[in-house]
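Q: How do we represent a protein-ligand complex in a form that can be generated token by token?
A: Start from the inputs.
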Amino acid sequence: MNRALEGFCGGFTDADVFGMMTQLITPPSPAKRHGGSARSTVPVRGEDVDCFVITGGNRLRGTTSVNGAKNAALPIMAASILTEGETVLKGVPYLEDIKHLAVLLERLGVSVSRDEKGHLHLKVEDELNCHAEYELVRKMRASVCVMGPLLAKRRQAQVSLPGGCNIGDRPVELHVMGLQALGAEVELISGDIHLKAKQLKGTEMFLGGPFGSTVLGTANIMMAACLANGTTIIESAACEPEVVDLANYLNACGAHITGHGTPRITIEGVKTLRGCEYTVIPDRIEAGTIMTAAAVTNGEVTIPNCRLDHLLAFVDRLRAIGVNVERDAGGVTVSSSRRLMPVSVTTQPYPGFPTDLQAQIMVLLCLADGNSIITEKIFPDRFVHVAELNRMGARLRKEGPTVIVEGVKGLVGAPVMASDLRASAALVLAGLVAKGQTRVSRVYHIDRGYERFEQRLNALGADIKRLPE
Ligand code: EPU
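Then emit the structure tokens for the protein with EPU bound:
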């Protein structure tokens, strides 16, 4: 371990730190709570990789709540870098991505722990290290959201460029451009972005790119601008509920942010922020995934804490397909018992149809009575699930950023594998409805974003076994 990090990690080795963080961020005794095996599910340091063996054909029925939103929790955790005193976050899911960011924050000098209620405690120790190394950043792209807070708090940051991933190139030039507009000097040295600024200065900026707004880019600039001198206006800001949640957290810490949830966010800089207690919003993508699971199996599932107002574009498409979505005091209930209609789906920035539910709705449309069209306007290459679904009997044809879905009578089980979180979740949904057995390999992708996915689906009637590959 780098000597400079020893102070922050108590002189432990990388393996020690990872072990400690696993304890801190992994729920206690899953075997006791769920009757399953307590083995680790992350393929690190030569450990086993798990797969799911799914026996299809069961209708999902019952009630299940969703966890706090991963994509809200991650930037909020990073934002704790900006604060003095302790932040207590409620509703943070037990996920591999959360664990990775916790490890990175620990390396940067933020102490992170879970209490017995599962609340996450974050507190900046005396000195912050400013280097987010490639080893950690490459594991999870969301690590780039430490860039804005480090720069604002420490006046410098060295963050490894994350590189591409299985859903596309994933550039960060808009993040960098926005931080430069706030007064940062930027250099790229050996794959690391080096940023420094004596004092950030509020300014007006346009943050739109070729694919519209940027979620983590908006988060980075908003966080940095909180401690800048003067007023910052972000035009073409992302409107996603996760950005709104971050702004709400920052305001609860003493920031002056207005306009969040609209394309124009205004931030009046303040001198300091203080940590606070905050509850993360329910995960709309997890809710949408479970809703699709109910629909695809002709089941009936209620989600008590589903934020329907965060899912209106998705629900619009579900209803057009012929799926029933009802809301009452008990929550949102999704049911389906009739033929599915083909529709067109185009992913767009919020409030449009979310790219993070594109793979899941494709599974539903595979079984519709006719041809559907799905167009990806956020990540034009985000289709790693297409070839795998075709192995299960789907009829999908990709043409550029569009997939033509020819409805089929049914899917058949097969060994499949995907290398992206949402694509892997979609393969599980396909397995739930396929005839026979489906083996989904490398489910660590699912563990990145869905807490105990198989156990929760099994509680609704699914038949999924987690096995070592
Ligand atoms: N883009 C640029 N330049 C930039 C930044 C982004 O051209 O500097 C482009 C991207 O290539 C993409 C589009 O802008 O075409 C939108 O990307 P965005 O920056 O909004 O994505 P992100 O912030 O990196 C978050 C979520 C993703 C989700 C996208 C879009 C987190 C941790 N990640 O990523 O979630 O798909 O927004 O909504 O919040 C997932 O959870 O599975 C996931 C991938």
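The radius of gyration is 22 Å. Residues 42 and 84 are 33 Å apart (CA to CA).
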